[in-house]
Design goal:
Elements lengths: L4 E2 L7 E2 L4 E2 L4 E8 L4 E2 L4 E11 L4 E2 L4 E3 L13 E3 L4 E2 L4 E3 L2 E2 L3 E3 L4 E2 L4 E2 L3 E3 L4 E2 L4 E2 L3 E5 L2 E6 L2 H24 L1
Length: about 180
């Protein structure tokens, strides 16, 4: 696993317990992964000009890109990337300098930009664009480009948010058992 973890200015990614990182992925710099996280093939995560934090049981699927925005005079903190617990990030998602709560699903191919805040228990539809600075309220499905609040989540969808996370924890455990 060490070949996929690279330092930037002497800072290496930190990895929690029982984490799976596919050997085709690259994680650079100030990144901290919680426990039971899974990083799938061809994920690129650069914690170079700010930091990236992933909560427990979060999964980042194939081909996703995680990045941050640098600190500057107009924005002294810049925009780190903060992802909560039990988050499913679909294939080929772009997350850039945003904050994502717990129990969130970001659909395949979605783009989430600087300063966005996604509250807990949210689903974002595949291919959606979340423009800079937008706040997505808890308990809703959001779709479109730019994203719009579509409707409240159904009970089955709320349950699926946790089920998706649980499924990826089980799958990464199978991968870990083979390594």
């Amino acid at each position: 696993m060490t070949s996929v973890l690279r330092s930037y200015k002497g800072i290496f990614p930190q990895v929690g317990a029982r984490v799976y990182i596919d050997p085709t992925s690259v994680l650079v710099g100030d990144i901290a992964l919680g426990h039971d996280v899974s990083i799938w093939p061809f994920v690129a995560a650069r914690g170079d000009v700010n930091h990236i934090r992933l909560g427990d049981r979060t999964n980042i699927q194939d081909g996703s890109v995680l990045h941050v925005t640098h600190k500057n005079n107009d924005n002294p903190e810049g925009y780190p990337l903060i992802i909560g617990n039990d988050v499913t990030v679909g294939h080929k998602v772009m997350l850039h300098g945003c904050t994502i709560g717990n129990n969130v699903l970001v659909g395949m191919g979605a783009i989430v930009l600087d300063g966005v805040i996604i509250e807990d228990n949210v689903m974002i539809g595949a291919g959606s664009l979340v423009p800079p600075g937008k706040r997505l309220e808890s308990g809703y499905l959001y779709v479109g480009s730019p994203v719009k609040q579509a409707r409240p989540l159904r009970e089955a969808e709320r349950a699926f948010l946790q089920k998706s996370s649980d499924n990826y924890v089980a799958t990464k455990n199978e991968y870990l058992a083979e390594s």
